[in-house]
Amino acid sequence: MGLFDRRLKSDEDLFEESTMSFGEHLEVLRTHLIRAILGLVVAIIVCLFFGDKLVGLVRSPIDKALKDFAQPVEPTNSHSFVEWLRESFGLAPARTVRPEEQTWPKAPNERTVIVGIQTDQLARLLKQTDPQLFADLHLPQSKRMVFIPLSAPEFAQFRRTVENQTHPVTLNVQEAFMTYLKVSAVAGIILASPWIFYQLWMFVAAGLYKHERKFVYTFLPISVGLFVGGAFFCFFVAFPFILRFLLGFNRYLQLWPQIRISEWINFAIVLPLMFGVGFQLPLIMLFLERISIFDAQDYREKRRIAILVISIFSMMLTPPDPLSMIAMMVPLIGLYELGIWMCVYFARRNPFSETA
Fold it and tell me: What is the DSSP string of 315-332?
């Protein structure tokens, strides 16, 4: 009878009376690894069918940032570094050109562009073109726009060139295909991770005592929640601020960035991973409290040192720009306070007690 085929009563420990030799342990490990790998392969195959949507999801922050970057900016000679810094941190409104009050019509097709001219300017140009023919033309005082459609095959190419500047680029023919495979593989690993962790847990749990497994049952969901929360915080909160800062610096230096898709994919995968790891801080604090290295009072007294350590940690895990560091440092300081609360709360609950 296999180890995991036994049916015990609901109040009995699943692994209480199980003993195996070293060879049997290897056989069980092999079985669970095979199951985990098969689950991973299936998940990657499923993700391959939705690879285009997954790539679009990972691209969405940089696509939006590049589209905002492409918006025209009011020309000014007084745009200092301090003003740009205030704009990057959202302390001052961006100097985008205000659209005309009158709504511009939409071009009927991509080969057509709409040109607008004010009525008084149009009348003045007509008089300058042929003064005799338009001698009786009255110059209107209205600033109302007159829209003139212009069509040419070259306009379609021009339109696509402009739109391409708001998207990442590839620098070789196989880069798009390799990016598709990489994103699908990473998504497959994420999709299959619960199944993989379950198979590994079934093997590891056989060597743990009941109270040790209770410790894992209590804090593993918290760890997963913190990791997912850190990744989501990075993707939906930190990315817009970081990209606004970095692209804004390109604008400040009057440079036009060309984002390579493979480099962005690496950035978009690694940085949320770093945020997820950093968000494990409360559990690390609780673990150190459990093994009697620190307690809640020590954490309170060493808060200033902890903030310095968090700053250095954030600087090491994020790209070399101040906004990325701040985007990680600020929530970690809040999580530090959460860790102090957890040390106090779980000390009262004592979830590690055998009789709990």
Answer: HHHS-SSHHHHHHHHHHH
Residue pLDDT, tens place only, 66-116: 887 777 665 554 456 556 556 655 555 555 555 454 577 777 777 787 777
**Domain residue extents for the chain:** 101-164
Q: Is 164 exposed, middle or buried (0-12, 13-18, 19+ CB in 10 A)?
A: exposed
Q: Return the ∠ at Cα 74 (arms to 73 and 77), rounded to 5°.
A: 115
299-321 burial, b at 16+ Cβ within 10 Å, e below that, comes to beeeeeebeeebbebbeebbeee
Q: What is the pLDDT of residues 255-283, one digit of tens each?
A: 888 888 988 998 888 888 888 888 888 88
**Spatial CA neighbour of 241 closest among 179, 300, 318:** 318
> Furthest-apart CA pair in the chain: how many Å?
110
Measured CA to CA, the distance from residue 288 to residue 294 in angstroms comes to: 6
Of 346, 331, 354, the residue nearest 219 (C-alpha): 346
Token reading at 90: 């959202």
Q: How far apart are CA 200 and CA 202, in angstroms?
A: 5
pTM: 0.69
CA–CA dist 160, 178 (Å, integer):
24
Containing 147, the helix (H) or strand (E) segment is strand 145-151
Q: Which of 289, 297, 246, 288 is nearest to 267 (CA)?
A: 246
Rg over CA atoms, the chain: 30
| Sequence-ordered list of residues with C-beta below 8 angstroms from that of 281, at least 6 positions apart, any chain | 310, 332, 335, 336, 339
Residue where the block lists tokens 């409360």: 282
Helix axes 303-317, 261-278, angle to 10 degrees: 160
Measured distance CA(176)–CA(169) in Å, rounded: 9
